[in-house]
Structure formats: structure tokens, C-alpha cells
Amino acid sequence: MRRLYQLLLHLYPANIRRNFGREMLAVFDQAAASARATGPAAYLAFCAKEVAGLLIHLAQPQQTAQPTEELRMARRKLIKITAALGFTAALAYGIYWNQLPVTSSATLTLAPPLVAPRYAPTADIPFESTVRRLVESVTSRSYLTNLIVSVDLYRDERRIQPLEDVIEKMRANLRIESRASGVLAIAFTYPEPLPAQKTTHKLTSYLMDEFTRQRNATTLQTVAFLQDRRIAVARQWEQALAELHTAAAKGLPLDRLQLESAIARKNYEEISPKLAEAETVRSLEERRQGPLLELLDAASLPNDVRPPWWAVLLLALAGALGGTILGWILTRLFPASTRTPQPA
Amino acid sequence: MRHVAPQPLTEPVLLILLALAEGPRHGYAILKDVEALSHQRVKMSTGTLYGAIRRLLDDRWITRFHEPDAARDRQAYQLTATGHTALTAEVARLKQLTRAAATRLREKEA
Predict the structure, then answer these.
(1) Which residues of A fall within a CB distance of 8 Å from B61?
(2) How many CB atoms lie within 10 A of CB A91?
(3) Strand partners, A177
(4) What is the DSSP letter of A130?
(5) pTM greater than 0.90
């Protein structure tokens, strides 16, 4: 506050500053200390009163004579300051407006298998867990690094920041959400529309391919697992049968061996249909007749609402004009409040 | 020469002259005295105070009071004879005004 007070004192003519400047600052210091001791509300009111008082009396014309050249210069200085402030504020706003990001979005939908469910019931999949795996894959460091480099995103940030920070920034601007009934919404926010659209397009392609790849991998592994299980169970059954025959030939008790053989047979009979089902699903996936992620809405090209450079310049000039008018009003607005009559 | 009645003083000027009527004062002391005289109603900013002091110095109603060991940022002021005359005239004018107002209000109540 003291600095602000000193700055405002500089707007006064040089002779006034010379004759009264130090004194005014000393009185201000004492009054400020007293106001601070009273409380924050009192101090705030004191600061507002001091700033208003200095500005009012700076704008006030001399009562006893024509305004001096120094006073005219102080007024011109005030107008220049408000014009500069207006120009700067408007230019800053124009630059901010120019940097506003845009969002490109796309939608994918889960298309059901082309085969009736009764022929391939396990072809149906839990969507939420699938989406979770897809999101983990698409937001991985390796994939995002490739994407950033291939689309040439965050050029300026990559020059000055570590790549990890740039990747985090991209993750924050990327949204992948599952909506009701197998719909996946993808959105990417970026300062420029074309790269935003290109990135969203690449993301949707990757998600569709990755979904199919994960499905294929799952079905292949399921089939391989069930095949191994069936072989193991078949061997157990054969062994149980061989032991049963041997015991029968020797005239030994057969109850336990018959039971073991029956269990091994039951296990084999249970595994076989599961393997058949898994092989059916694998066949569907190979023919691309299983569930697929399909494109519902392609990556949108957002509207470019950023102003052209000449509009930003015009805005800054309008700000300067507004500041000039405000400065002129300040120098004219407040009437004299300490008029003293001339002695007779 | 036609006599021209003096203009009424503004409240800040009146209070500053009253503060100095007791004796020489520094700027901060004038501020505190003005608050006390107005029962905390008038709290002058330093801009208002020194705006008034400048004009009073120009009109020679007050002068700087030189203290031997005072620092440069502690300048005291005192009333001049002209300032004292102006203050007395203003107080008389206000007394006449309040008497006329009291009489008028009594007549209205009656």
C-alpha cells in the first residue's frame, strides 16, 4: 500500500512533491499504523480513502489561478497511464481468447455378434471391464508418446518441459467415457481444431483395433487353456479305466476305482462342450462376426472461435481508447472540495 | 467599493483552522484533531488535508511553523492573523445561522 501511495504521489506536479511529498508520506505512515491497529476493515477503508483522496485532488483544478503547466502535465500523465492500462488489459484478453482450446469428439458403439446368442452365448462380454482395459491401453505412456510425436502435438511444451509432463497434460485433456448400453464417447481438447480432430480420429481407430485384438487374444488363450484341460482330464480318465480293468482281472474290490473312473468321465464330459463353445467364439472372432466396436460418430472438426490477429489488435486499440476516456473523466469528474475564498 | 460578503468555508477548511486555533500542529496532529472535533465523523485523507493546506498557504491564512530540531518530514503549521480573522468571521456566521434556525423552529412548534 505504501508503494502504491508513493506511485500516486508521483502523479503530482514536481513542486508539490518537493514541498509536501515527504511530509505526506510521513503522515500516511502514521495514519496507516493507527488504522492497522484498529482492525482489517478499518485499514481497508483507510486505504480506499487515501487512494481516492489522492486521485481526487490530483484531478482538481487550482482554485486561485489557471492550472499550471505542471498540473496539465500530471493530468496528461494520468490519461496516458489509463490508456496504457486499457490497451494492456484488452490485449491480454485478446491473447487469452486466442488461446481458448477446442474439443473434438467421437462415439463408438458395441455392435453385437452376428450369430444368434444361443449358438455362441459366451460371445457376449462385460462392457465396463472391457472399457477399463481399453482406457489403460490408450492412455499408456508408450501409446501417447507415439501419438504426440506422430500428430506433432504440444510442440512448444515439448521444447521446454520433460515428456512425462507433456504426457500428463495430454491425459488431462483426454476423456474416454462409457455411456449407457455399450456406447463409448471419446473427446480430446487442444488449442487447434485440426490436430484435435486428427488425434480423436487416431484414438478411435486405435480403440477399435485394440478391442478386436484383446478379444482375439482372450479367445485364443481360452481355447488353448480348455484344450490343455481336456487332454489332462482325458489322461486321468484313461488311467482310471486302466486301473479298473487291472483290478477286475485280479478280482480286487472295484467300488473306489469305479467311482474314480466315473468322476474322471464326468470331468471329461463337462470340459468338452466348453471347449466346443470357445472354439465357436474363436471362429466368430476370426471371421469378424463376434462383438465389435463400430464407429457411430466420426471425429468432429470443432469450430475455430479464435479471433484473427487484426481483431486482437482492434480490441487492444479499443481498450486504449476506453482507458483514455476513463482517464479524461477522472481528471474532470470530481468537483473542488476544499475551495477557499480569497481574503478580502 | 462594493462590499462582498465572504464565502462560507468548507467543513475541512473550517476544521483545519479550528485545529490550528489552539496552536501550531503537525499534519498528523491536525488529522487527529479534526477527527476529535467532529466526533469521528470527519476522517480526512492526506490528499484532502494537504490539498487544503496548500491553498491555505497560498492564501496566507496559515504559515509554516519552524521548529529548531524538527525533521524535514515533520512540518508544523500555524494560523496567521488573516486566517484567524477568517475563522472568527465564519464562527460568527455559523452562530447567527444557528440562532436564526433555533428561533424559526421554536416559532413553528409554537
Answers:
(1) 340, 343
(2) 17
(3) A185
(4) H
(5) no
